[in-house]
Amino acid sequence: MFDPTPFTPTDEQFVLAHAYVPEHIPALMTTISHAALFRVEDYLGLAKDNWIIFIGYPLTTPFDAAQCDALVARLLAARRPDYLWFIGPALPPALARQARSRSRDQYLRLALTATPIPAALQREVNQAARVLTVEPAREFTREHQTLVAELMRREKLPPLIAELYRAMPAYLAECATALTLNARDARGRLVAFFVVELAAAQFDTYVLGCHSKKNYVPHASDLLFAEMIAHARARNKPSINLGLGVNAGIRRFKEKWGGTPDMNYEFCECYLGPPAAVSILDALLAERR
After folding, report:
1. Which residues are CB-contacts of 275 (< 8 A; sequence separation ≥ 6)?
2. Which of 70, 103, 209, 261 is most enclosed, with most CB atoms within 10 A?
3. Cβ partners under 8 Å of residue 246, min gap 6
4. Same fold, 5-104+265-287 and 109-263
5. CATH for 5-104+265-287?
6. How do residues 68-82 score in pLDDT, each as one tens digit?
């Protein structure tokens, strides 16, 4: 019988040594999803209640769409979930035919070579540093939530991105490898922050960022970006995974700092159960009510 392997501490060490996308980071995925990790051959997945998330980025072997398709089919036959979310470099053919929603993006990666920050960017960083200080911390406070609420009032975020922001209080509280970089003005007010994940051996992960328009300071996010780079270099990380492009403005900001397309990202949701089933996103939202 096909039986996915429960996740162990030894698995975690192996995965972090071979991780190359944020979805490979166990603490990040389990804290946000409140689901249990498992391994299926060279792949990771998460399961809870009536749903499964399958991470279609193999840890040590090249991605093969047909092989991945067959593996997912065996998993679905064994577990019989109502919902499946698939995330990977390409959609396996059968899932592409079944998908009721799908999206596409690219991860951006910043290689941390010895190349200095370009002069124009350094001037912006210096300008912000004259009026702001940056502090590292390991908590997500009411101040951070106020900035997030301000962001959500002024921008319509994709549902999964909005849910990522909402998950941050629990994530920072539970995950020892997560870090906030906080930019504060002379009055001590939080004007911008980044959340960074440090667990993977070969990269740090930019999880998300936010800045205030109400207490706006020019180039606060650039100052935080420079601090994120310095923090990763000090720990000899070869790169930073900057996450997805999300939208044109976010992509331009990441590309301005040297982020380059690194890997394709395909997402789909497949519905396999009865009409009354609760979706994965609804389940995640219910966890935080």
Report:
1. none
2. 209
3. 105, 158, 161
4. yes
5. 3.40.630
6. 999 999 999 988 999
